[in-house]
Amino acid sequence: MGTLYLVRHGQASFGADDYDVLSELGHRQCRQLGIWFRERGITFEAAFHGSLKRQRASCEAIAEGHGAVPPAALRPQLDEYDSLALLKATHPEPLPAADTPESYRQYFQLLRTALGRWMAGEIAPAGMPSYADWRAGIVGVLDEVQRVQGGNVLLVASGGPICTAVGHLLRTPHEVTIDLNLRIRNSALTEVAITPKRLMLVAFNHLPHLDHPERRGWVTST
């Protein structure tokens, strides 16, 4: 029996022109996770990441800290949903920059509403698949992981795909899946036991690699 280690990407560049860029702190978060894996003798039979820059860079930083992660296979099914397309489908008017506590709260309140409507099939954001099709792609990767025999698997993705995977395993309603999604932290580790018959959740959204006084300021969620 192996373990699937699902990792959310490190801190990206929320509020910048290109969010899909791993910040310097995001790189340190993921490199430290790689060190944590190495120090505990955790090795990997296979690795996967999505096609987004922040996902690829996070996987590379983990590999840098670990020193022996196998070449990662690209799985675009692990890409995050398009939050801007979701927001536009629900709130066509331009939103103010999320640069104050109030505007930040407004952004995530609207995102929560948009996610719920997309999951319910009430909106079709431009350039996005239906939620059912998007979810099916993620479940397909989980099925692929289950066929990896006798080893651990590293999977680096974003909050949406990871929480959708957890929701699938626990059969949670959409509202709970959204709650999980909006609470997952950067470089957070979610562990799933791999057995021949099924995948079973062991731990969710924890940061053992940052559990040190010198790294208290490294905990982020953007």
From TrEMBL:
CDD domains: HP_PGM_like
Signal peptide boundaries: none
InterPro entries per the UniProt record, alphabetical: His_Pase_superF_clade-1, His_PPase_superfam
One Pfam family named in its UniProt record: His_Phos_1
Database matches in SUPFAM superfamilies: Phosphoglycerate mutase-like
Domain of life where this protein originates: Bacteria
Protein name per UniProt: Broad specificity phosphatase PhoE
Organism: Rubrivivax gelatinosus
